[in-house]
Structures are given as C-alpha cells and as structure tokens.
User: Fold this.
Amino acid sequence: MLNGFVREVIVPQGELRLPVAVQRFMNVRIMLPTTPELFFPFHTGLLYGHGIASRSIWMPFCDVTADEDRSRSMQILSIKKSRELIQQAIDKRLSMDEMTELFGKESWQIKAGPGSACFFTQENIHGSGRPNTSGKTRVSMDFRVAEGIYGDYLGRKIPAGYFHLIPDTEEEEERLAQHPRRPDAFFNSKNNIFYVANNTASTYGIPVHLQRYMLVDYCNKKKLEFDYELFDLEDMTHLPTLKYLVTQRECNIVMYSIFALPEDEAYRNELLEKAVERYGCQVTRVSRGESVGQGESLRFEIPSGQTMELVWDIERVGNLLGKRSPAPVPPPGLPGIAPPRLDHMLIHAEEVAETGAFFRDVLGFRLTEQVLDGNGHQLGIWLQRSGRVHDIAVVNGPNGALHHWAYWLDDWDQIRKAADILAFNGVQIDQGPTRHGITRGNTIYFFDPLGIRNEVFTGGYKPDPDFDAITWTEDNFGKGLFYYENVLSQRFLTLHT
Assistant:
C-alpha cells in the first residue's frame, strides 16, 4: 500500500523520477499530552545523516489545523532561515534548550489533518520543539524517499540499508511479493534508549543504520528491551542530544561505543561526572598532574564504599620491547617476576548486586560469570569492559575492602617461574599454582610486605560482545575458585585489606 501511495501520489506531486527508493522502516510517532519530557527536538535531516537528495513526507493522523494545536503539530522553518540558524548553533555550541528557544521563535505551524502529506527537504529545520500541551494526543507517520539516480547524495542513509528501491509498477510488486519475507527483528519496549551519533572520529565512519542494527541485535541477544532511539546532530561536536539524555532524562543509554563520548576532555568529563552524580555518588575533580602520570580525572565512592577514579589521559611510558620492530619477548635476565601489565582487581561488597548494577548501568561493564546462592542472590560477579574475561570482580564481604589486584603473565610457564621466584625469596604463597574454574585462568596468590594479596594471572578466555554469562551454583563455588583442589578456603574468602 505504501509503495503504491509513493508511486501514485508522491512521485507525480513531488515531480520525482523512477526508480524511487523508500525508507525501509517507517516512523510512527505518538505525542502524549501527559508526558512533558517527551518531544521531537528541532533538527534538519542533514544533521541526522540524511543526504541532500532525499525528501521527507510527514502525515498526521489527526487534525492539527487549529492555532491551539501548535504544540502537537510539526513546526518548520524555511530553507534560508534554517541554514542561517544551524550555522549559528554550531558556531555558538548551543544546547538543546537554547536551540529549541532560537528555532521556535522562527518556526511556523504545519496545519494539516488526516489524508494530508507534507513534503519538505533535508535542509528545513523541523520538529515539535516543545512538549505537547494541547491536552490531545498526536499520532503521525513520517518517512523519506529519494530518486534512484541520486544514490550518491543520500548521506549516511545508503541504499540497501536505510533505503530500498520499490518496484516501478504494481505488477512487478505483486510478483516480488510471492517471495517469503524474513521476520522483522525490531521490537518496542520502555526501559532503554538507543543513542546513535557520527560526531566523533571513532564513530564518523560507522553508518547510522549499521549502528542501529548492531544495537537491536545486541538487545535481542541480551534480552534487553528498548523504548526508542535518539540521534545526535551531525557537525555538532558538543553532542547536545547526549547531554540532554545524561542531564535531563532518567534512562539507560544504549550506545554503539564508549568512543561516541565527546572527544573534548573537559566536556567528556562533565558528562561522566553528571552520570555518576545522578546515580547518587559524590564526585571530586582531580587536576592534571595531581596523581603521577594522569590527566584530569573524576574521583568518587562506589556503592560498596571503595574510592575509584575515571581517567582518560595517562602518560604512556612503554616497556622494554619498544614500538619499532620489537622482539616478541623481553631481554633475558630480567630481575624478579617482571609482569608486563596489570590485569584486574577483586573487591568486596555487602550487596554484590547493587555494586554490579553500578558498574553495568553507569560504566557500561558486562557480566561474564556469577555465583548464585540457593535463593538466586549473587554471591560474586565477574565483569569486563576491555574484552578480557574480567576487569573487576565483586564478591560478598565487607564494604570498602580490597581482596586483591592481579598482574598479567603471558603463559603457564611464566606462572611456574613466578612460583619458583616467590619460593626462593621466601614470599608467602596464599594459593597456587593452580587453575580457576571461574574465568578458566591459571594463577598464584601471594602477599606483599604490606600484607596486601597479589595475584599473577594468565589464560582465561575472551568473551564476544554477545557472550551469555556463565552461572555457578553455591555448592560448586569451591571448584569455581580453585578447579583442581575443589576446596572453598575460608581464609581466601575472608582475609582482605
């Protein structure tokens, strides 16, 4: 039906030439008068990655012709004024609220009703711009079309992705309809909001439609529901949509990558600080150079009482291998164990699930393994953010306590050598050499002169982004900790710093 409408109405009225491409998924928008925090912000199609060659069609399913319906209708500006104000917004780094006020003064109401189709370009500023205060719900549909001859001018909305070519005739469409259609993967819910952007060096080359499909696929595999999606405005490197989500909305932001955060250090820290504060944690700014080798950082106390910092910029001192045609192994004769890097840490929490929620919801960690008691409560969790099997673990115990931190070694032979070095130097070995069931890594635990437990660790596995978490039962916790011994050591669980 939609393809027929495009062929019979949009093509002749818009003076378009076949073949014509149509947006693959239509947008149905419902503006309730009881949700003042929800509105469709002012924007142009160009700022959402649409090319100059595509055209928008907006179709209201209710009458918005009256003056009192202005807040629930679509607002629009002329192309000339749109160009002028968009450049002003970019130059002055305007916020969402400032753009709404500026664009709203120059906009005029589209007065239309059921059966109407409003046709406009990707340069026109449009949107609702304000909450619906009319007392009546607005339902509308919108989509985009483009002439096939201008396929190179569709911005990031490429053919066979965002657009698909429709048959030139009804007969051809009926013939193609005989082929079975793949089931749709898209679904709606209420808890999470997709954030899609091309405003940073790391996201600029990732087409928006590809980001959307990856987010949908991720949520489907993780059994997460999502409410809707918001795009940031292209060329606006201060990311006003992201700032709006972080500072004004109570929501979970599902984004393509942490590298979609602002590249400007001060602005990025501002958003991270606000996200942590909104979770209930007090944040302190640490100046560049106050901690050795660190740029500006954010220091805060997590729900389990430990003090942590978020650091973006650090001094990179390198190692003995160098960066130009390096040898694969360090030179012989290095003193001591000589681990190449830190690997992870384990902390205690009285409420493991609460601390885990903070790391997942605020910092974007993913659960790889967990231990559950007989009632389904989490006794321990293993979380990762870097692609390793875990970057931090949280096990039941007193708030504020550190169980251990771990250094990485390259293989099991290095673990054996570490045991020899520890024993030769009279260092107290706590556990090992042995193997974990949880994470599947090889390990030795020992104490340094301050009484802090250390670990050297290797092995494990690399979980894919769609990895389903592994669950251990409480009666198998001993095998999970030390697979060979299958013993639940109370000293190991209770001795901490």
Residues 181-190 have pLDDT under 50 and may be disordered. The CA atoms of residues 232 and 239 lie 6 Å apart.
